[in-house]
Each structure stands twice: as structure tokens, then as C-alpha cells.
Amino acid sequence: MDGLKNWIMLTAVLLSCAGQAAPEVLIPAGEYKMPAKLNQKSIKVAEFKIDMRPVTNAEYLEFVRQNPQWRKAGVKKIFADSSYLSYWPADLEFGDKSMANSPVVRVSWFAAREYCAWKGRRLPFTNEWEYVAQSPYKNRTEIRELILEWYGRGAEWPLASVEKGSANRFGVHDMHGLIWEWVEDFNTALVTGESRADGGLDKNLFCGAGASGAADPGDYAAFMRFAFRSSLQARYTVQNLGFRCAK
């Protein structure tokens, strides 16, 4: 009887989320300086929309229901490594109902892009994500300390629900303190080690040696983000790596 009751409750949660994408927030055009970039002038960002919060397990479940090729048992290994959705006990089950509103993680860049396209959206570009992420929740020193404290904790499990913390000045939640997030151009800072091949790449995005000339050498968190992105491959899935969509 308890099993039936739990199943009914979980079904109600899923039905409430099914087919619903995260609410969009309109981000006005503006400009900012990439803290981790050497001698960087202001970067202009055109108006765009971004999800108010990361994509959740319940939302991703609806995606794999309608797109069987992205279920954990059927996804092609070229598009996702062996850890893809590994915390889901089954193709169409993410576990305890309390995880319905937690961000989906262990999804590859390919899978995240496909989900966003299914919703008529796309992944945000690095400049867009950083522009929103640098919009302070409090003052700059406080948010920097919050981010570094989060980075220092390491991966936590299970993940908290989305929208638990306060939004930034744009009304966007969970840019820091919950998960890392895929961006469309995550690999533009990749260094191969071959100097001729790397001629057009900006190594100073994540190289500690370049910090002395960076726009904001004190923003260690920004260097960490670029270092993390540069370590990824498109098929990788990571325990604390999810995504949100833009438009």
C-alpha cells in the first residue's frame, strides 16, 4: 500500500512538471569585463533570454520519454560516456520523488544541446553565462567568498532543489552554489600544447601565470570556471555538471 501511495505522489509531481520548461528571464543588452582575460576591454552582450534556473530531473525525464535515443540504456557512446544518468535507477526513473526539482546532472554537452533544441532553445554562450553570473546577489566581495566556499566543499550529494537560494539582480537563480553548467562554446579555451595549433586560443582565460595582467586578478572563481571548462570533452558526464537553456 505504501508503495502505491509513493507511486501516486511521484506521478503527481511529474505531471505537474511535464512539458513545462523553466521560466525564461529577459536579460537586457549590456557589457562587462571578463575577469580572467588578459587586458580585456569590455565585452558587449546583446539582449537574450535565459532560463531562470537549471533544468531539473523531472523536466529531463519528460525529454527522454519523448526521445528514446537519449535514455541511459540507448544513448550512443559517442554522445555520452558510461556515467550518463548513472544515478537514475532506470531509463524512466530518477529515484526518490524529492529529486524531481533537483538539477539534472551527468548529462553530456550533446544531450544538453539536444534538450534545449527540443524546447526551441539553445545553450547559452560563455559571454552570456558569465555576464549573468557576474551580476551580484550581494556586493562583489560577498558573492566571491560564497563561490570560493562552494568550490572548496567539493561535490555534494544529493543535490538540493533549484531556486532555494536568492536570485541575482536579473532574477536568475542558481548561477553559483549548486552545480557547474554547460555552455555552447565550452571548449574555446582548450589548449592542445602545440604552439602553432594554439595560436588563436586565449590561454590567459585559465592560466594562473596570466593572472597578474588580468582585468580582475582577484577573481579566482572565474579562473576556476575556465579551467574546468577547458578540461571537458563533449561526451563527458560529471556528477555536479548540468545545464540551463537560452534563447
From the alpha-carbon coordinates, what is the Rg to the nearest angstrom? Answer: 19 Å
Number of domains: 1
The helix fraction, in percent, is 25-40%
- Tell me the number of strands: 6
Strand content: 5-15%
| Class based on secondary structure composition and strand pairing | alpha+beta
Main β sheet profile: 2 strands, antiparallel
CATH fold description: paralog of FGE (formylglycine-generating enzyme)
What is the typical, i.e. mean, pLDDT?
80
Q: What assembly state would you assign to the polypeptide chains in this entry? A: single chain
Largest sheet strand order: 1-4
* Helix and strand element order: HEEEEHHHHEHE
Number of helices: 6
Domain Sulfatase-modifying factor enzyme-like: 23-247
Pfam families: FGE-sulfatase
Keywords: Signal
GO molecular function: formylglycine-generating oxidase activity
Describe the structure.
- The chain has six helices and six strands.
- Mean pLDDT is 80; it is low at 3-19 and 190-215.
- The strands form three sheets. The chain has a two-stranded antiparallel sheet with strand order 1-4. A two-stranded antiparallel sheet has the order 2-3. The chain has a two-stranded parallel sheet with strand order 5-6.
- Helix content is 28%, strand content 7%.
- By secondary structure, the protein is of the alpha+beta class.
- Strand 5 (180-181), helix 6 (220-230) and strand 6 (241-242) form a beta-alpha-beta unit.
Brief overview, please?
With 247 residues, the chain is α+β, with helices and mostly antiparallel strands. The protein is built from 6 helices and 6 strands; from the N terminus they run αββββααααβαβ.
